[in-house]
Amino acid sequence: MARTRRTRQLQHTISVIQQRWGPAAIRTARESDAASGPPALPTGFRAVDRLLGIGGLPRGRITELVASGTAGQATLAAKTLREAQRLGQQVAWVDVPNAVDLDFLARCGVGFEALTILRPWDFAHALTMTGDLLRGGGIGALVFDRIASLPPDAVEALDVALRDWTPTLDRSLCTLIFLTETPPNGSYPAGLTLPFFASARLLFQRQGWLYRRRQVVGFTSKVTVLKNRFGPSRQAALIQVKYTNGIQAGDE
Question: Structure pTM?
Answer without folding.
Answer: 0.85
